[in-house]
Amino acid sequence: MADHHYDDLKNELRAQADLASVLALLEWDQETFLPAGAQASRTRQIGLLAAHLHERRTASPYLDLIDTLAARIDELGDDARVDVRETKWRVDRQRALPVDLVRERAMLHAEAKSAWIAARQENDFARLAPYLRRIVATERDVARAIDPTRPPYETLLEEYEPGASLAAIEPLFGQLRDGLLPLVNQLRALPPDRSDATPLFGDFPIEKQKELNRRVATRLGFDFALGRIDEAAHPFSTTIGEDVRITTRYSTTDLRYALYSTIHETGHALYEQGLDREAFGLPRGTSCSLGVHESQSRLWENNIGRSEAFWRFLQPLASDLFPELEGRPVASLVRAANEARPSYIRTESDEITYNLHIILRFELEKALIEGDLPIDDLPHAWREKMQKYLGIVPPTDREGVLQDVHWPSGAIGYFPTYSLGNVYAAHLMQAANVALGPVDELNARGEFAPLLGWLRTNIHRHGQSWRGAELIERASGTPATPNALLTHLQRKLEFIRG
Ligand code: ZN
């Protein structure tokens, strides 16, 4: 009885995933190859398909099916239990929201996003403020509708990191912040020539960089029979069924620009390509959380791609295409890849300062939701925290509170997943070093398969079988703490210092 219902659920979830894949393909095309004059019909196609998918996801027979299965979850096998539990959790959050709230929220986000574009252009926070005020109020309503008994911020955070709690995140971020502040002070005390990117500057034709990206992604394990790399203004990765596509962007003078965005997106893609294909469309075959996803991209980008060992492997490969790199000392290339100093813009910041940008946003957005910070005080609070954490104050709001699209898009609770990703990445690397022996020795030889295999076995193939924190604990043998990340950054700082 229950089995037949479970088969029905699997069929429906797979159909929904196929529809979502078609949508993803339309959106990928819009960001890459769509002729500029064809935007109107594409927007219409996407709208139609999105509406159809929404109808399917909110149809009564489907919701009844989930409730029927959830009522008998104890009778189900392990696999079915995961799929039913996670599907019901997601569906319950959605159906807790009154239709009017969903509609108003979507309209508000669209309006706020265009207000943000204008506000950022004109460096005018006041223009965005009324929208942010409404977004904070709306997100509080959303959180209360989903669960009136929990702190609203925690409910919002769970949208991106299911199972996350303030009881776990607050001490973790507190410890991370307290460990990072002395590192940033040491960084600020370094002579300026310790932070020199010129060894990775030069004349790098895009076609050759494309070849380099292709070779690097292939060596890391990206399967081009099941994916592509193309170009887009804002790099992203997307999954279209079993086809995983990434995009990157190029600078003809700075080799780091495309290389590291490619490695980052390759990390996301390796996770997607490593999911259990038999469970396509089901929670077991879907990535665990944004924090876990980001742990995979950051692990390859930072822990591997910016290491000295990696550059020992990469220099000959890159010199083959760009002979000018051949004579440059490896240490100078590594130092260039790790150029670090406090800066205003999060997306351009280095590994050592990055997480303080996130902690600043976490503290501010939590205060906004909890009613401890009025919107009008936000720019000032931003500057104060920048001074306190990074020792610099952005000269304009454009380089401060107006820089990110997240809040105007209604994404409150999203930022913490970036730092969770960094914490998880370093924690996993520590465990991989125990399991595989010194991973650096493998990297220097360009042998990435053992590490990828370890991640596949311990992270990728489990999908949503467990929530993020538990998945990381099972993979590594210990609960994640910021210790491994802080040790990794301390070593990096020592390397930069020379
Ligand atoms: Zn990412």
Layout of helices and strands, plus pairs?
Layout: H1 2-32, H2 39-58, H3 60-71, H4 78-95, H5 99-121, H6 125-146, H7 152-158, H8 166-188, H9 206-220, E1 227-231, E2 237-240, E3 243-248, H10 255-274, H11 290-304, H12 308-321, H13 330-337, H14 351-369, H15 378-390, H16 416-436, H17 439-444, H18 449-458, H19 468-476, H20 483-497
Rg measurement, Å: 23 Å
Please identify the structural class as seen in this structure. mainly alpha
Distance between the termini: 67 Å
Helix amount: 55-70%
Comma- or semicolon-separated keywords:
498 residues; mainly alpha; three-stranded mixed beta sheet; 3 strands; globular; binds zinc ion
Task: Walk me through this protein's architecture.
The structure is a single chain. A hairpin with a 2-residue loop joins strand 2 and strand 3. The chain contains 20 helices and three strands. Helix 1 (2-32) crosses helix 3, helix 10 (255-274) packs across helix 11 and helix 14 packs across helix 16 (416-436). With 498 residues, it is mainly α. The model has no long low-confidence stretch (mean pLDDT 96). The protein has a three-stranded mixed β-sheet, with helices on both faces. Helices cover 64% and strands 3% of the residues. It binds zinc ion (ZN).
